[in-house]
Amino acid sequence: MTYQPATLKGIDLRAEIDRLRKERNAVILAHYYQKPELQDLADFVGDSLDLARKAQATEADVIAFCGVRFMAETAKILSPDKIVVLPDMDAGCSLEDSCPPKAFARFRADHPDHIALTYINCSAEVKGLSDIIVTSSSAEKILSQLPAGQKIIFGPDKHLGGYLARKTGRDMLLWPGVCIVHEAFSETELIKLKAQHPGAPVAAHPECPAHILDHADYVGSTSGILEYAKSMSGDTLIVATEPHIIHQMEKAVPDKTFIGAPDADGNCNCNICPYMALNTMEKLYVALRDLEPRIEIEEGLRLRAKKSLDAMLAMAGSTVGQGDLGAVRVTGD
Q1: CA dihedral sign, ordered 272, 275, 276, 281
Q2: Cβ-count burial of 47 within 10 angstroms (0-12 exposed, 13-18 middle, 19+ buried)?
Q3: Is 114 helix (H, G, I), strand (E, B) or coil?
Q4: How far apart are alpha carbons 98 and 178 in whole angstroms?
Q5: Please, which residues have CB within 8 angstroms of residue 287's CB and are 6 or more apart in sequence?
Q6: Per residue of the chain (333 residues), what is the pLDDT tens digit?
Q7: What is the CA radius of gyration of the chain?
Q8: C-alpha–C-alpha distance, residues 263 and 248, integer Å
């Protein structure tokens, strides 16, 4: 769906969004990578796992998901009776794009003795082909619960999978997908930046390549990086993830300085996720007004995808969505 900015001229968007939120009994969820103005008006701001839980626990009739398509799909999978809208249906994900369902199905068929431990940054179809979904904040905990001899496919992020393999010693078959934001960080420019700020630690998301993670003092999810920013003893932090997380850092600890890690041109601004950037205040207003664009998922697919999400929520220690772990195919000793 498209909107015509001219029709919104003169509207107090924040006031209208608040009005529609009440009228629709809607909850607004925003990922840390959204524009600051969307983060500031959201009912909940978080990472993928936080928002998956909030989506299921909310009593709202409408979920307006300021994030990307796979996140809104996750909300619909967990809350099928709720209306789920995404401000811009073109807000996709390079990791999702890297893993077409038909290709992933063939890959699984070629390795029948493996289970699929799949990063949440994937389509509903790929979730339906997976055994357990993970997020960057839950992957290591979930991996530790699988038998040591279990053969594992990890996708679609080869960098996150490689990080987990190095950290845990688990040998996993990796799907070759990458996040275009985290792939863009430059080791050379990061070294220069560290020299300009001696003693400043680096916090990096595990979607970054290994040559970036090698320079990190802390590696973790967006929520983990935020907590590190709050607890670190120094006054300056270099942040190697999508830079909109810095908005929450500056709100939480305004006396500290946060610097986005640079790309090959020495510019951190181009590391903004182009998909996340598609959502705007205007589009959120229209989505709440018209209840479109709306996420719809065929029921059979939803139930297949829900099994892998339920496994994640149960194994990650969630208080909601305690799924049947018997649905997870685990082989080996």
Answers
A1: positive
A2: buried
A3: strand
A4: 7
A5: 64, 85, 86, 87, 293
A6: 444 443 467 789 999 999 999 999 999 999 999 999 999 999 999 987 788 778 788 889 999 999 999 999 999 999 999 999 999 999 999 999 999 999 999 999 999 999 999 999 999 999 999 999 999 989 999 999 999 999 999 999 999 999 999 999 999 999 999 999 999 999 999 999 999 999 999 999 999 999 999 999 999 999 999 999 999 999 999 999 999 999 999 999 999 999 999 988 876 665 899 999 999 999 999 999 999 999 999 999 999 999 999 999 899 885 333 232 222 333 333
A7: 20
A8: 22
Structure tokens at 141: 């905990």
Write the Ramachandran bin of 113: left for phi over 0, alpha for psi from -120 to 50, otherwise beta: alpha
Rounded Cα gap, residues 83 and 60, in angstroms:
9
Nearest CA among 125, 110, 187 for reference residue 156 = 125
Q: Does residue 155 contact residue 177 with C-beta atoms inside 8 Å? A: yes
Q: Is the dihedral of CA 305, 306, 307, 311 positive or negative?
A: positive
Q: Taking a C-beta distance cutoff of 8 angstroms, is the pair 194, 238 a contact?
A: yes
Q: What single letter denotes the amino acid at residue 58? A: T
SS3 121: coil
**Helix, coil or strand: residue 174:** strand
Cis bond leading into 100, ω under 30°? no
